[in-house]
Amino acid sequence: MLIFLGCYRRRLEERAGTMSAETASGPTEDQVEILEYNFNKVDKHPDSTTLCLIAAEAGPFRGGDPKWFKQRLAKWRRSEGLPSECRSVTD
C-alpha cells in the first residue's frame, strides 16, 4: 500500500504547477480516461480509500470524484435500461 501512495504522491508533485488550471473547469481528457478506466475496470461503487487513490492519480477538478462517479453510475444504469437511482422494491 505504501508503494502505491508513494507513486501517487510523486504524480501529485509533478502536477503541482497545473492544479489551478485543472480545478477551474471540469475534468481534462486525461482525467476522464483515468476515471472511466476505474469505473469500468475497478469498481462502479468505489469506497473512500479507492476514491482517495483515484483523486491522487487523476488530480483535482471541479465536481470531484464522488460526484463524477454518482453521475456516471446514473448514466450507466440508464444505458442498461435500469432506473438512474436505486429505489426500494415497492417503487
From TrEMBL:
Superkingdom, taxonomy of origin: Eukaryota
Gene3D superfamilies xref list: Homeodomain-like
Biological processes, Gene Ontology terms: chaperone-mediated protein complex assembly; heart development; lung alveolus development; negative regulation of cell differentiation; negative regulation of transcription by RNA polymerase II; positive regulation of gap junction assembly; positive regulation of skeletal muscle tissue regeneration; positive regulation of striated muscle cell differentiation
Cell location: Nucleus
GO molecular function: DNA binding; histone deacetylase regulator activity
Keywords: Developmental protein, Homeobox, Nucleus, Repressor, Transcription, Transcription regulation
Keyword Repressor: yes
GO cellular component, one term: nucleus
Coiled coil (residue ranges): none
Complexes and interactors: Interacts with serum response factor (SRF). Component of a large complex containing histone deacetylases such as HDAC2. Interacts with the acetylated forms of HSPA1A and HSPA1B. Interacts with HSPA8.
Protein name, UniProt field: Homeodomain-only protein
Source species: Nomascus leucogenys
Gene encoding the protein: HOPX
